[in-house]
Write a structure and sequence with these properties.
The protein has 370 residues and is an alpha+beta fold. It folds into 2 domains: 101 residues, Adenine-n6-DNA-methyltransferase TaqI, Chain A, domain 2 (Alpha-Beta Complex); 165 residues, Adenine-n6-DNA-methyltransferase TaqI, Chain A, domain 2, CATH 3.90.220. The chain contains 7 helices and 20 strands. The strands form 7 sheets. Strands 10-18-14-16 form a 4-stranded antiparallel sheet. It has a 4-stranded mixed sheet with strand order 11-13-12-17, with no helix packed on it. A 3-stranded mixed sheet has the order 2-1-5, with no helix packed on it. A hairpin with a 2-residue loop joins strand 7 and strand 8. Helix 3 packs antiparallel against helix 7. Pfam families: Methylase_S (PF01420). One of its GO terms (biological process) is DNA restriction-modification system. Belongs to the type-I restriction system S methylase family. One of its GO terms (molecular function) is DNA binding.
């Protein structure tokens, strides 16, 4: 279902990468268990409301007496080591999946396992809600001051050509540069967990923000140019999108601060760097989430199925900015602590995710009794 055919509503539209939007009509009834048909293997999503699954996904239509939420955990455990025989089309073959021999616990044990794992997911969901509220606070102030132009003192400022007096249209190129990432070689990617994690377009949430799911690890022995090591809270932007509707193209994210993890600046991800001494990165994050900027980037995207943009296109966007820095600096003073709290919650969620994923196979194989 392309974005232009969706009608505004509260029914989640679910793809291989999770909820990608909303529609006014449901195709499948809750409870729902959805996984990716191709592209993303091992990610499983549980829905407690009616939903619309896209054709990039597979969804359960008959739980055969299994507790639905337990089924989501069970399927995630089955898929973690899944390998498709169709190398040319990596993904989940439904027919193969149906034939996999598994051992399932009795309903009472299912309930106990579900309760144990759900406790972790509920804490992560609570953190996600807090993160969303914190970010929305920053975005609301950005829209109030820089989109609706209701900044402090606006009542006494006249508009000239659509901008307040003392403001001007400035290309981002005058403030920042966007640098390309490094072409890390596939031969150095690692199936084992390492301290080095490659940033990819899959690390960006729809609407902006970091998304940490299944990391792509890079060998500890692989060549690593020092200029391509990212620091916590570096501002990055995605320049490639695999979705038909360019769901994440051009959106920004802040690099997460995680213990014992080094994020690497991979190709098709841009790093935003200052051209001078003025670098209001939290303000710029909101600019790169602005719908006007999005139209500028997506409207000129190149490619067919895979969409691309470029530093040149991103930097050619003109933003209306005050000539004096004070208003933007005031915004930074408000927004910086909010994003710092978000990063703390991101780190907390990764610890919870790691603990849950460590428990998952042990609970499923009976190594840990409940």
């Amino acid at each position: 279902m392309p974005g232009e055919t969706r009608i505004e509503g509260d029914v989640p539209v679910v793809s291989s990468s999770g909820i990608t939007g909303f529609h006014n009509e449901a195709k499948a009834q809750a409870p729902g268990v959805v996984t990716g048909r191709y592209g993303t293997i091992g990610e499983v999503y549980y829905l407690d409301q009616d939903y619309w699954p896209l054709n990039t996904s597979l969804y359960v239509i008959d739980f055969k007496g299994t507790r639905p939420r337990f089924a989501a955990y069970f399927l995630r455990n089955v898929l973690k080591d899944y390998q498709s025989d169709k190398a040319a089309v990596p993904g989940v073959d439904r027919n193969v999946l149906h034939e996999i021999k598994v051992r399932a616990p009795d309903p009472t044990t299912q309930e106990r396992i579900e309760a144990t794992l759900t406790a972790y997911d509920d804490m992560m969901e609570n953190n996600r809600r807090r993160m969303a509220l914190l970010e929305e606070s920053a975005r609301l102030l950005y829209r109030e001051w820089f989109v609706h132009l209701r900044f402090p003192g606006h009542e006494h400022t006249c508009l000239i050509n659509g901008l307040p007096q003392g403001w001007e249209r400035v290309e981002l190129n005058n403030i920042i540069n966007v640098t390309h990432g490094y072409a890390f070689q596939g031969a150095d990617f690692s199936e084992e967990t390492t301290s080095r994690v490659l940033t990819t377009p899959g690390n960006f949430r729809i609407g902006g923000g970091i998304k940490l799911g299944k990391p792509k690890f890079y060998s500890e022995a692989g060549p690593l140019p020092p200029d391509y090591i990212l620091a916590p809270m570096d501002l990055i932007v995605t320049m490639t999108d695999l979705s038909k509707d360019s769901d994440t193209l051009g959106y920004p994210a802040f690099v997460a601060k995680l213990p014992d993890v080094t994020f690497l600046h991979n190709q098709r991800v841009g790093k935003v760097v200052p051209r001078g001494d003025f670098f209001p990165k939290h303000f710029l994050y909101c600019v790169l989430c602005d719908e006007r900027y999005r139209h500028h980037v997506v409207g000129a995207a190149t490619g067919g199925v895979i969409k691309h943009t470029s530093p040149k296109r991103i930097l050619s966007y003109e933003a209306g900015l005050p000539r004096k820095r004070q208003l933007i600096e005031d915004f930074e003073s408000f927004a910086a602590p909010l994003f710092a709290q978000i990063n703390i919650l991101v780190e907390s969620n990764e610890k919870l995710r790691a603990a849950r994923d460590m428990l998952l196979p042990r609970l499923m194989n009976g190594e840990i009794e409940v």
